Amino acid sequence: MRLDKYLKVSRxxxxxxxxxxxxxxxRVLLNGKEAKPSATVKVGDELDVQFGQRTLTVxxxxxTDSSRKEDAAEMYTVLKEEYRKREExxxxx
Length: 93
Known about the structure:
Blueprint: H1 3-9, H2 16-24, E1 28-30, E2 33-34, E3 46-51, E4 54-60, H3 69-72, E5 76-83
Antiparallel strand pairs: 1-2, 1-3, 3-4, 4-5
């Protein structure tokens, strides 16, 4: 399955076009390497997705072409969730 489609079907990202844009910006790593939207994902792969100050690391557990909202969370396991601290402004703002 394509990376951009997986991100949409698993509901990690709401729209496929947004998933495509995020991947093209280099904010998605597939097994530790930058991944294009057309990259093929398979069960057991690890994804690192950067959302602003937050990075979410998940392992792919299941691949399906469509899923209900209630079933989407079963498609992956969250391994790690990290928040980057904002760099402090030297002027205190």
